[in-house]
Specification:
Protein name: MarR family transcriptional regulator
Number of strands: 3
Number of helices: 5
Shape: globular
Keywords: DNA-binding
Structural class: mainly alpha
InterPro entries: HTH_MarR-typ (IPR000835), MarR/SlyA-like (IPR039422), WH-like_DNA-bd_sf (IPR036388), WH_DNA-bd_sf (IPR036390)
Strand content: 5-15%
Distance between the termini: 47 Å
Order of helices and strands: HHEHHEEH
CATH superfamily: Winged helix-like DNA-binding domain superfamily/Winged helix DNA-binding domain
GO molecular function: DNA binding; DNA-binding transcription factor activity
Largest sheet: 3 strands, antiparallel
Length: about 130
């Protein structure tokens, strides 16, 4: 039988979850203050922050957002309607498209990212050199 976990472990995990939830609540509120839903903000950040490039396929985006492909396509549609992202043909696969952030989307994302970085610094998770 495994030895029981110490009280310190439970306190650490509880505090960690509390801090995550508090940050997420902050993030959700910040997105809404800029006229976006939290999912729209996550989509923009996932596209612009994709490793090594500034575009993604819907499948890659669905994985990053941890939602179904169908739900992701709907979210892309809504973001495209308000000109936050664009689709373009994938030159490597004619059955696929690539999603990119528009200038309008980048403006909103830049504002939100600055707000988020300030909050991350304030709570002590990130320090500038």
């Amino acid at each position: 039988m495994e030895p029981p976990l110490s009280k310190d472990v439970y306190e650490f995990l509880a505090d960690f979850r509390y801090r995550i939830r508090k940050f997420l609540r902050f993030s959700e509120s910040a997105a809404r203050s800029q006229g976006l839903t939290p999912k729209q903000h996550q989509l923009l950040l996932s596209v612009k922050g994709y490793p090594g490039r500034d575009y993604v396929t819907p499948s890659e985006l669905a994985e990053r957002l941890q939602i179904t492909h169908h739900a992701c396509v709907g979210l892309i549609d809504r973001c495209e309607q308000i000109r936050l992202v664009t689709r373009r043909p994938n030159p490597e696969d004619g059955r696929s498209v690539l999603i990119e952030v528009t200038d309008k989307g980048l403006d909103v994302l830049r504002t939100l990212s600055e707000i988020h970085l300030e909050e991350i610094k304030r709570i002590g998770f990130f320090k500038e050199n």
